[in-house]
Structure formats: C-alpha cells, structure tokens
Amino acid sequence: MDIDPASPSPRTSTRDRTELRAGLEAWLESQYAGARITDFSAPTANGMSSETLLFTAIWADEGIEGRHRCVARLPPAADAVPIFPVYDLEKQSRVMRIARERTELPVPRVLWYEADAAHLGAPFIVMERMDGEAPPDVPPYVFDSWLLRADPELQAQLQSRAIGVIADLHRVALTEDDIAYLRASQGEGSALRRHVEAQREFYAWVCSDGIRLPVIERGFEWLEAHWPDNEHDEVLSWGDARIGNMLFTDFRPSAILDWEMAATGPREMDLGWMIYLHHFFQDFTPLVGLPGIPGMMGLDSAAATYASASGHRPRNLEIYAFYAALRHGILMSRTARRGILFGEATMPADPDDLVMHRASLEAMMAGTYWDSRR
Length: 374
Hints:
The protein is an alpha+beta fold. 39% of the residues lie in helices and 14% in strands.
C-alpha cells in the first residue's frame, strides 16, 4: 500500500461531534450541577483505535468554580470498523491507576470511568489533560516533526528517557490479583504463551471476513520455531510502548498515554515494541526521499540503555522485536480494511499487501532485517 506523507489523516470516527459534546455536557452536569464544557475538539495527529475528545470542563466544587482541562476516551462506533473486538475501558482505568500510584511516572489521573453507555453511546473514561507534544503519527515524525529537526544529542536524550519510562514501569510490584486481572486469559501457561494465544485469537477475528494473510500465518510459525527461553518473566506491560504515545516537554516525558493494550509479559515485549515501532516508520523514509532518524532505536543501543536503566539485560530481543512486528501486522491489516470500507484505499491483489511492512516481516524471518539496524 502506498505511503504519502501529505495524505490526510485516515477517518477514525462516524459519530456526530455535536451530539457527543451535548451528551458529554449533560453527563458532566449530572455530576456537578451547572457544569459546562468549552474548547471542545478532537486530535488528528495520533491515535487510530479509540475516539479521543479534548475539552475544558467548568464546575463548582464546594462553591469554588474551577476550570479543568480534560480528555475523554471511548471506543469507536460499531460502524467505524473498530480496530479491536473488545474495548475494556475499566481495565485501562485500573492499569493507569496502578502505574500512577506505584511509580513517579507522568500517567494522567483518571477522573471518572463511566460504564453506562446511555450517555455517549458507549462507556468512556475522563482523565486529566497533560501538557506536552507527541511525535506525530500523521504524517510520521520521521517525515516532518519537531523531533526530526532536533539536534542528534536531543534525539538521543529523548530515546534514553523514553526507554527509562518502560524500565521504571517494569519495576511496579504487582499483586496476585493484579496479575490475574491483567494477564491475557487465553490458553494456559506463561504470560507470553497466553499473550501469543490472544494474538492468534485477534488475528482470527480480523480475518473473519474470509481474507487470510499468509505472511502473518508464517510469522506465527516462525515464532513457535524460535520460542524465547525467558517466556516466564512477567512484569506490567504497557502494551503500546512507543514514543508516539508519550508527550514530551523539553525532550522529557511529560505524559504516558494509550493503555488499551496493557497486559503482563516479559520486559522485552515492551522494549521490542518501542524499537520496532520506530523502524516501522523509518523504513518508509527512503520511499519518499527523506532521511528520517536512522540512528534512533538501534537494537543494541536500545538494549544497552534499558540494561543501564533497569539492571536487566534484555534477552532474545530480535525475537520480541519480531513479535512486535507480527502484532503490528495484524493491526495494520485491520486498519487497511477500515480504510477500504471508508473509500480511502482499495483492496490489493495480494492480501499480504494489507500489511504495509510485509517486507520487514519477511526480512526478519530470513534473518537479515537487523543487519543495518543494530
């Protein structure tokens, strides 16, 4: 599928924003009499899975009126071809509270979790809005962004601090109840085995339209043949650990966002995801004649940074980075299907081309991908 850095943001919502605002304001007024909303908008540069609303809420608490900068998140409407089959906002709320309360990381404070879908047509969460700027997804930050234009030293500092975030997150002490709640429920055995089985189930759901992807199925076979020996390591996994899900102020993380893929598993799941998701964008820069940031998130340098920050030397990182690319391939094929439904793309002759980075997956399975990216 073609990549065009000037292309508009893909469609992510079928809901009427005026109705959403009215519903949200009515709900807020039920919490605080006389409450109202101003500055209502929706971001466009990042995020494909959940619907995000930005607003300022004004209400009086104990007679004192205050202005509160808020973010609401809710699942996409059913007719918007949701990326995931289930959106567990209660789980997101719980894992954000765990991360906020047990670390010093800048995790937004969850103000409300509303389970009643009557207000906005779906459950939703409201959290505090934090300051900072994310490296954008649309167009990708390696095409044009404040990060691309920064000095290499500042780029390296941002990388080191971002990896430090996941190292700190992996120190969180989880109770048995936490693990039981957050661990993938599919299958039996290690957290990694359960996580992979959940991805198999997700792939089957994505392909319920009858269009199967041989490159993804070969990928699962490759993973089984190269199964890592540290599968029983288990920490809190952010799940979507990447710099595009962080806000930065002066190249320091100021917010950690998007917890819908949170689970438990080996540390390398998050680290491999952070490394590969940069290369996913970087690999397209030659196609559009741009340099990107080729020195960022090298496999060995990222592993060394994580080891220094955590005291844990990553193992089997090439396998976990491949698993990240495999998982992302399933997500990309679902996103491509959504674009086709909305008339933003056409179905390719080869279904594997629904996976933008199929060439990267094939190179990883051939053992050549990381030769120039270490």
